[in-house]
UniProtKB/TrEMBL annotation:
CDD domains referenced in this protein's UniProt entry, alphabetically: RRM_MTHFSD (cd12270)
Region (Disordered), start-end ranges: 248-267
Keywords assigned: RNA-binding
Protein name: Methenyltetrahydrofolate synthase domain-containing protein
GO cellular component, one term: cytoplasm
Biased composition (Basic and acidic residues): 248-259
GO molecular function: RNA binding
UniProt xrefs under PANTHER family: 5-FORMYLTETRAHYDROFOLATE CYCLO-LIGASE-RELATED, METHENYLTETRAHYDROFOLATE SYNTHASE DOMAIN-CONTAINING PROTEIN
Lineage, opening ranks: Eukaryota, Metazoa, Chordata, Craniata, Vertebrata
Xref: InterPro entries: FTHF_cligase, FTHF_cligase-like_sf, MTHFSD_RRM, NagB/RpiA_transferase-like, Nucleotide-bd_a/b_plait_sf, RBD_domain_sf, RRM_dom
Length: 396
C-alpha cells in the first residue's frame, strides 16, 4: 500500500473530525485524539482480569484516558502518570487526599488534578508497574500501534524496562474509537515501537495475542537525531544512560564517532563545546591565586565577572561518594562548574557557575541524577550573596 505512518495518522485524524466523532480538545490533529464514547471505552477496563489483578498502573495523561485514570483511583490502586515531556523524572504518582470524595477523585483524573495531587517518583523508587495504558492514533487488531509521532510512549516504555519497572509479560492496553482500529503494514514498525495486548473501543474488547517482542529497554546505538534531542530535553534519560554506562553497558549512540565529520550533528556540537571549554585560559597572578579559597577546588580557572556567579546547592550526597565521582558525573552531564565546594561530611556540595542561566541549565540537567543509590537534591543555593556560607554558619 506504500502508506507511511504519517499517512495513517492523517487519515484517522481527518476521519474523526469529518465524522463528528472528535471530542475536546480539538482539532484532534497532532494529538492522541479524544473521541465521543471514550469514557464508555475506558469503563470496560474493569472487566479485564489484568486490571483487577494489577496494583500499580501507569496511564498516559491524554484526555481520552481520563476514564481509566478515574477507574484506577476508584479501585484504590496506585496511579502512575508520566511527567509532562518527562522533564522532572519518569512518573508522578497521583495521591488523592485521604477520604477523597467522588468529585475529588474525578478531579485527580484530569490534567489539572495530575498537576495538583502528584508526587514525583525517582529512578530509585522501586516502582513495579503491573499494567500500562497508552493512547494511540491508530492500532491494528494484531496489536501494532501508531502514536502521535513524538516517540514519548515508546521512550517511556523503554525507560521502564531499563529501570526494571516492567517485565516482558506486563500487559499493555490502548483505548481508541472503532474507526482508529485499522490495518497497519508490519514493515512500518521499528524495534522500538510499542505493541499492545488489548484494545478497548466503545463497542469491543480486542485481545491481540501479539507475539512481537516489546522494546527491550533503550537501544542506545540505534538512537536517532531525535533521541539526541530527547537526551537534551529529558534529564532522566541522561541519568539512565549514565547509570547504564556505570554498570558497564555500551551506551554509545549511533554515529557518535562518525558524526564528527558533519559539524552540525549534536555529537559534533558537544565535542566542539567541549573543545571550547578546554581552551587554555589566561594565566592568573599569584595574588589572584592566593585569594582563591583552598577548599574550593577550581575545575575551571576562568573566574572573571565573579559578581554574577550563581551557586547551585547539591544535597542528599551519599556518605560513600567521592568528590571525583561527582566531578565525573558533572562532566558527563556537561554541567562542569567554575568551582566546586565539596562538603561531603555534610552530604552536600556547592557548585559555582558563571551566571544564572548556566546555573539553571545545570540544575535542569542534574535533576533526578542519582549517585550511589541516592537521588541528589539539586537547586539554586538559597543565599546567593555569600555562596552558602550563611546557611552553614546558621546551622552551627
Amino acid at each position: 500500500s506504500g502508506a507511511s505512518k504519517w499517512d495513517v495518522r492523517q487519515r484517522v485524524w481527518d476521519e474523526l473530525e469529518a465524522s463528528g466523532l472528535a471530542d475536546f480538545p480539538r482539532p484532534v490533529h497532532h494529538r492522541i485524539p479524544n473521541f465521543k464514547g471514550s469514557h464508555q471505552a475506558c469503563c470496560s477496563i474493569k472487566e479485564l482480569d489484568v486490571f483487577n489483578r494489577a496494583r500499580e498502573i501507569k496511564v498516559d495523561p491524554d484526555k481520552p484516558l481520563e476514564g481509566v485514570r478515574l477507574a484506577v483511583l476508584q479501585a484504590r490502586k496506585t496511579l502512575l502518570v508520566p511527567t509532562p515531556r518527562l522533564r522532572a523524572g519518569l512518573f508522578n504518582k497521583i495521591v488523592p487526599p485521604s477520604g477523597a470524595t467522588k468529585e475529588i477523585l474525578r478531579m485527580c483524573a484530569t490534567s489539572q488534578g495530575i498537576k495538583e495531587y502528584s508526587v514525583p517518583v525517582g529512578l530509585d523508587a522501586k516502582a513495579r508497574v503491573d499494567l500500562v495504558v497508552v493512547g494511540s492514533v491508530a492500532v491494528s487488531e494484531k496489536g501494532w500501534r501508531i502514536g502521535k509521532g513524538e516517540g514519548y510512549a515508546d521512550m517511556e516504555y523503554a525507560m521502564m524496562v531499563s529501570m526494571g519497572a516492567v517485565q516482558e509479560d506486563t500487559p499493555v492496553i490502548t483505548i481508541v474509537h472503532d474507526c482508529q482500529v485499522v490495518d497497519i503494514a508490519e514493515e512500518l514498525l521499528d524495534d522500538h515501537d510499542l505493541t499492545v495486548d488489548y484494545i478497548l473501543t466503545p463497542t469491543r474488547i480486542i485481545k491481540t495475542n501479539c507475539k512481537r517482542p516489546k522494546p527491550q529497554g533503550i537501544i542506545w546505538h540505534k538512537a536517532t537525531p531525535k533521541s539526541y534531542e530527547m537526551l537534551e530535553k529529558i534529564p532522566i534519560l541522561k541519568s539512565l544512560r549514565y547509570r547504564e554506562k556505570q554498570t558497564g553497558k555500551d551506551v554509545t549512540l549511533r554515529d557518535e564517532h562518525s558524526d564528527l565529520a558533519n559539524p552540525n550533528t549534536p555529537a559534533a556540537l558537544n565535542e566542539k563545546a567541549m573543545a571550547e571549554n578546554t581552551r587554555p585560559q589566561p594565566a592568573r597572578s599569584s595574588a589572584q591565586i592566593r585569594q582563591h579559597n583552598v577548599e574550593n577546588d577550581s575545575l575551571n580557572p576562568s573566574l572573571e565577572g565573579s559578581d554574577v556567579i550563581t551557586t547551585v546547592y547539591v544535597g542528599n550526597i551519599p556518605p560513600s561518594l567521592r568528590v571525583s565521582e561527582l566531578k565525573c558525573a558533572l562532566r558527563e552531564f556537561q554541567a562542569t562548574p567554575l568551582r566546586l565546594n565539596w562538603q561531603g561530611a555534610q552530604h552536600r556540595a556547592f557548585l559555582d557557575y558563571k551566571d544564572k542561566a548556566t546555573a539553571e541549565c545545570a540544575v535542569s540537567s542534574l535533576k533526578s541524577l542519582s549517585l550511589g543509590g541516592n537521588t541528589l537534591r539539586v537547586e539554586l543555593a538559597k543565599n546567593q550573596r555569600n555562596k552558602g556560607q550563611v546557611e552553614i554558619n546558621s546551622q552551627k
